[in-house]
Design brief:
By secondary structure, chain A is an alpha/beta fold. Chain A has helices at residues 9-28, 36-50, 56-73, 79-95, 99-114, 116-125, 137-141, 148-156, 160-168, 174-180, 200-210, 234-245, 262-265, 274-285, 303-309, 338-346, 365-376, 397-405, 506-509, 514-531, 581-589, and strands at 226-230, 249-253, 290-292, 312-315, 321-322, 335-337, 357-361, 381-385, 409-411, 414-421, 427-440, 446-450, 456-459, 462-465, 469-470, 482-483, 486-487, 501-503. Chain B has a 5-stranded mixed β-sheet, sandwiched between helices. A 4-stranded parallel β-sheet of chain B has the order 11-10-13-14, with helices on both faces. Chain B has a 4-stranded mixed β-sheet with strand order 12-17-16-15, sandwiched between helices. The chains are: A alpha/beta, B alpha/beta.
Chain lengths: 610, 578
């Protein structure tokens, strides 16, 4: 026998890895609302299977934890069972020899704390709190609860106008979302179990790109009630649209000279062409919404006057002011905020970056927006300075990839320390402190710390700061409550002790996504209607095709085609094109129709009206 | 239309038809279990699976639509074996002690298992434990529940109450109460629609036949039985006898064989109810400002529970008239006791009702006006009547006719129709019209209130009183819609009849169960037929009712009538179930 031979372990592991891949798929498609206690049992069961069997706490302790979890789930657990689990989990965590044991126990220990209500409901009331709330995962995770399987089926049937009408039942801005929605709907798509989530946004884009002109539904009989909406962004316009359909007289007060809020003053043209935004807004306004442009509350009209004049007020002022770095040299020419730059562009005031070296500070979507915009404005180089790793950037992956494709450079693990200026005060660069990635912060992300390395100068003509936005609360501070800069409003968009005053969108949540703003508009519309003493229902009479009988073999996901990177230079042409009909047929046909199969055809399925 | 082939037979079916329906329309039976036409097509049991050529997976035929050119095999080896496995899986979590199950012989699962020749299941039994308030009129055996979800559907979609919910996690999923663990602490109307739609014995009712036997067997006790109108249209279904043959007089013979001392008819007290309720309506209608509108009928205990649970603010709108069951008990233990010269405490009143809620109504603290004892001692459902007949070895086919006893056995056509939706309204209008005008209307003048439509409305002109706007609803979902419309000011009515069960008592929760069938319409039509054939069709013409008023009560709404025949609708409250 020879002394050594090539290991076959890797091949053996390959089949195990295939199984782990199935676990991953199942986790990716995890149903919304599953009982965390039951899931934890699954986790502990897998952990027990993975124990090597050498050490006592892991070999014996994990199966004991499993038994206790089963006892709880079977309705035989007591509060003593829970404390016994806590103790055992802590002891395993403290004594297990390797991570296979102590990490499993640690998950149980944290779970007992984080899902306390679930555990106690099982023990005390023999009730399970987790349950199929999200029968249709995409709909459950869409903040506006758009009927996604419904419009996918309609696109599959080439009924594009019907698809758009169905979307507008819950979201009056389908084009906006077709172009820039962050599509939380796709996150838990059940299709993940087979291959990959359905390209929902891509199908929505097929619907809006192909739909012919559509008339808005008839407004309900006039109620004689008036509503003021402060702010013409997506939250305000959505509420205005539905309230108008409900028969109320709505007036939108907009501070700037165009409507759209961050859609116009934040989203670059290449992602969402302004002409399309204008059409979308035109459609909503055609219901009869009144608009007062260039009116600032507190300057042109007082808040009290508004309250007196209208039966209800909806505040959606967004988050339009910038945050400062707070480093030496920040004041003065050459350092601009992303918000300011994008706002000017929104009003067609284009800066000339020809031949300029640009440094962008930040790692979010706005940072990517200004990065890619700068490249289009002729910048000779754009460097994104970020204090964590590239992987930690909060921008969507495709945005980062897009920026890199177009020639941007990411400088990760560098924290801005000061702005370097020449004797004339002209910016020469950003002085950065190298960072080292380390332990996790409270938010569950690995935090950077000073690497104690020499500072680095990143040469720059212009520095764009994109580290978040804030709310301009000044005109409202005397009237409504704020906490840490955000308006304090409930999940129903009401403000405690302020009857008739509602608030939603970025000014309540802080900078968030367009679909969350739209959802806030929808929620506010329903609750304002109720506050005014009505119960108008918004519905759509489009009939949704039943799925055809078929097997569901694995099939790759079709992505939205992009224009080539070399074609993007120096222009603001829309990045994305549209799927072909063949692609759209295939992609929309990948939908597993959770509205029709599974729990969706039983309870908490299709919501035909709201 | 779509052309397809099922089991070699070329058929055509309308688009959007399910495979199951298309097959059934062409005489091809596909076994199914959870499916219930018009109520439940969620494909939960996977018994109705069929093989479609070109597809690897089997499709559930209850919710797969026909397509052009489909070639379907309903009983291929693949479909048959998969179906068998699924039934065996269901049996693994089902208490298979069929002998002691009330649904033995009338159980969809039992029939299916026999049809598939399943004599064992290879799977380890995992039968859930039973945990219930066994005193409640509705009983749930968790050990027999197959999670078909029909009860959830009927309670959600037909009755709008949502008492049942899917609970537990993963493999521990059960169907249980949405709120709490005791059905009597929920907003349940006790209508029993979940029971009549249950394919197995999982949902049942509290069986009181043994208690009835004890009363009958007690030599010190005089047992008086009353039979509700709709019972006579349904009991024979068990025996497969014609409705026309199975007269109330044959049932009277059976009840005597069982041993009841007096056989009476709730139709009598239905006539009495009309006297009081119609008079009450006329009184309210002529003093409009003193009452809140509309006036609601109060004879259906499921409806009364619903109103008091869901809209307690409308309790004053309920007629104060007791239900016919309640009035019967009060009269039996006063007027009748005096007539036969017996201590009313010795009289025990047993009701045969199409209803599970009547069991709870009889136990209300407010129904003891006659002698202090409950006015009604025991309520049996139509199904328990059949049990009693079987216990007494009665061959229903051989029954002779015999007269009901007097005086509480006399009735008019107006009393019979109480068991069909619209019947109470029809009967009340006949008498109210006569009360106001002094003349009998044509008994068929109010046909607009009849029929199975869930929400009917009409306007009748009563000379001297003006236009009366009425509505009739059956099914609590329809009741909810109607009340919401009233509250929103969208409709205006003077008098509204509501029955908790679709079709009225004819479709009651205590009626015989026939898998997959809704029989309320057929039974209701029988009541309308009986009414048509009666000589007397107005409650106020019932000679025994006249005698009762002349010799005992005085007049409708008299003090005595108030004491015995009316009730304080505020005298008890409903749990809200939250």
């Amino acid at each position: 026998m020879n002394r050594l031979e090539l290991s076959t372990l890797a091949e053996k592991q390959a089949s195990a890895d295939a199984l782990y891949k199935e676990f991953e798929r199942r986790i990716a498609a995890s149903p919304v609302g599953t009982c965390p206690v039951d899931l934890m049992l699954g986790y502990v069961t897998m952990s027990s299977a993975q124990t090597c069997g050498k050490c006592v706490p892991c070999r014996v302790g994990l199966p004991q934890l499993k038994k206790m979890l089963e006892e709880v789930l079977d309705g035989h657990g007591t509060m003593q069972t829970l404390s016994a689990m806590e103790k055992l989990a802590a002891d395993i965590e403290n004594t297990a020899d390797c991570a296979l044991g102590f990490s499993a126990a640690s998950v149980v220990k944290r779970g007992l704390k984080n899902y306390r209500d679930d555990f106690e409901a099982h023990v005390k009331d023999h009730e399970c709190l987790g349950r199929t709330e999200g029968a249709i995962p995409c709909v459950a995770l869409c903040p506006a609860r758009v009927d996604i399987p419904g419009y996918l089926a309609l696109v599959n049937a080439h009924r594009y106008e019907d698809a758009v009408k169905l979307i507008r039942k819950d979201n009056p801005m389908p084009t906006t979302c077709a172009y820039i929605c962050e599509h939380p709907c796709e996150a838990h798509c059940r299709r993940n179990l087979l291959d990959d989530s359905v390209n929902i946004r891509g199908i929505k884009k097929v619907a809006v790109d192909n739909a012919g002109p559509i008339q808005p539904p008839m407004n309900a009989e006039s109620t004689g009630k008036t509503v003021a909406v402060i702010g013409g962004g997506p939250a305000g316009l959505t509420a205005a649209y539905y309230l108008t359909l409900m028969g109320h007289k709505v007036t939108v007060y907009e501070q700037r000279n165009k409507l759209g809020g961050m859609l116009r003053y934040g989203i670059p043209e290449y992602r969402y062409p302004k002409a399309l935004l204008d059409k979308e807004i035109e459609y909503m306004l055609s219901t009869g919404i009144e608009v007062k442009m260039n009116v600032s509350i507190g300057t042109d009209i007082t808040y009290e006057e508004l309250q007196k004049q209208y039966d209800a007020v909806y505040i959606t002022i967004g988050a339009h002011t910038d945050r400062k770095l707070g480093i030496p040299g920040e004041e003065g020419e050459g350092v601009i905020s992303a918000v300011e730059m994008l706002r000017k562009i929104g009003d067609n005031d284009m800066p000339d970056f020809t031949g300029k070296k640009i440094v962008v500070v930040g790692g979010g979507n706005v940072a990517m927006d200004v990065t890619r915009t700068s490249l289009r404005l002729g910048a000779s180089s754009v460097t994104c300075v970020y204090r964590r790793r590239q992987i930690d950037m909060t921008a969507q992956e495709e945005e980062v990839a897009g920026a890199l494709d177009e020639g941007a450079v990411v400088l990760p693990l560098h924290a801005p320390a000061s702005i370097a200026r020449d004797e004339n005060g002209k910016v020469t660069g950003l002085v950065c402190k190298p960072q080292i990635i380390g332990g996790y912060d409270r938010g569950g992300r690995p935090a950077p710390r000073d690497a104690q390395q020499p500072e680095k100068l990143v040469p720059a003509d212009i520095i764009i700061v994109a580290i978040g936005q804030a709310i301009d609360s000044k005109p409202f501070e005397a009237h409504i409550p704020f906490h840490r800069g955000n308006v304090v409003a409930g999940r129903d968009c009401t403000i405690a002790d302020h009857p008739g005053v509602f608030a939603g969108g970025d000014c309540v949540t802080g900078p968030a996504t367009v679909i969350r703003a739209i959802a806030a508009g929808k929620v506010a519309a329903a609750n304002i209607d109720q506050y005014l003493g009505f119960n108008h229902e918004i519905s759509c009479d489009v009939e949704i095709p039943a799925p055809a009988a078929c097997d569901r073999p694995a099939c790759g996901r079709v992505e939205i085609p992009l224009i080539e990177a070399w074609e993007r230079k120096g222009n603001f042409k829309c990045l994305e094109t549209c799927m072909t009909e063949e692609e759209a047929d295939q992609e929309s046909g990948r939908c597993l129709r959770c509205d029709y199969y599974g729990y969706g055809n039983f309870r908490r399925g299709r919501q035909e009206k709201w | 239309m779509v052309k397809l082939t099922i089991d070699g037979k070329q058929i055509t079916a309308a688009e959007n038809t399910t495979i199951l329906q298309a097959a059934a329309d062409n005489g091809i039976n596909i076994p199914s279990l959870c499916y219930f036409k018009g109520l439940n097509d969620i494909g939960a049991c996977r018994v109705c699976v069929v093989e479609i050529e070109g597809m690897e997976k089997l499709a559930s035929s209850c919710n797969t639509k026909v397509e052009e050119g489909m070639v379907i095999h309903t009983n291929s080896a693949k479909a048959r074996e998969a179906r068998r496995t699924n039934v065996q899986l269901i049996l693994a979590e089902h208490d298979c002690n069929c002998l002691t199950c009330p649904r033995s012989g009338n159980c969809a699962l039992q029939t299916l298992a026999r049809d598939l020749n399943i004599s064992s299941t290879p799977f380890k039994a995992a039968v859930p434990e039973n945990d219930w308030n066994w005193e409640a009129p509705i009983i749930k055996y968790q050990s027999k529940c197959i999670k078909c979800m029909r009860c959830v559907q009927v309670c959600d979609n037909i009755q709008s109450l949502g008492i049942w919910n899917v609970k537990g996690s993963g493999g521990r999923t059960l169907v249980g109460l949405e709120h709490g663990t005791d059905i009597m602490n929920t907003a349940c109307a006790l209508c029993g629609q979940c029971v009549t739609h249950c394919p197995t014995g999982a949902l049942s009712f509290r069986d009181d036949t043994q208690k009835a036997l004890e009363l009958i067997d007690d030599p010190e006790t005089i047992t008086v039985v009353q039979v509700a109108p709709s019972v006579r249209t349904a009991w024979m279904e068990y025996y497969g006898i014609d409705r026309e043959f199975a007269t109330i007089k044959r049932m009277a013979t059976a009840l005597r064989k069982i041993g009841f001392d007096y056989v009476f008819d709730t139709n009598f007290s239905a006539d009495l109810t009309i006297m009081e309720e119609a008079s009450e309506f006329v009184e309210r209608f002529t003093h409009k400002d003193e009452y809140s509108w509309p006036m609601f009928t109060s004879c259906c205990p499921g409806w009364v529970r619903f109103l008091k649970g869901q809209y307690p603010e409308l309790t004053a709108n309920l007629s104060t008239a007791k239900s016919p069951q309640g009035m019967f008990g009060a009269i039996a233990k006063t007027y009748f006791a005096e007539r036969i010269g017996v201590d009313p405490h010795k009289i025990k009143v047993v009701s045969i009702m199409p209803c599970t809620a009547k069991k709870k109504e009889a136990a209300l603290p407010t129904l003891n006006d006659a002698c202090g004892d409950p006015d009604v001692d025991l309520v049996l459902t139509t199904r328990e009547l059949v049990h009693m007949m079987r216990i007494h070895n009665i061959d229903a086919h051989q029954l002779e006719e015999s007269e009901l006893d007097s005086p509480l056995g006399e009735y008019t056509g107006a009393g019979v129709i109480f068991g069909a939706t619209g019947g109470v309204m029809d009967a009340a209008l006949r008498t109210a019209y006569a009360l106001v005008t002094g003349e009998n209307p044509d008994p068929d003048a109010f046909v607009n209130v009849r029929g199975m439509k869930g929400w009917k409305e009409s306007t009748f002109n009563v000379p001297g009183a003006g236009e009366v706007h009425i509505a009739v609803a059956s099914g609590l979902g329809n009741a909810r819609k109607l009340i919401e419309a009233i509250k929103a000011g969208k409709v205006n009515y003077d008098f509204v009849e509501i029955m908790a069960c679709p079709g009225g008592c004819a479709g009651g929760g205590g009626q015989p169960i026939k898998e997959g069938c809704e029989l309320a319409e057929e039974r209701g039509n029988e009541m309308w037929r009986l009414d048509k054939n009666m000589v007397l069709r107005h409650s106020h013409e019932n000679p025994e009712i006249k005698t009762l008023y002349n010799t005992y009560l005085g007049a409708p709404l008299s003090e005595k009538a108030h004491h015995l025949l009316h009730t304080d609708q505020f005298g008890w409250t409903m749990p809200r179930g939250e």
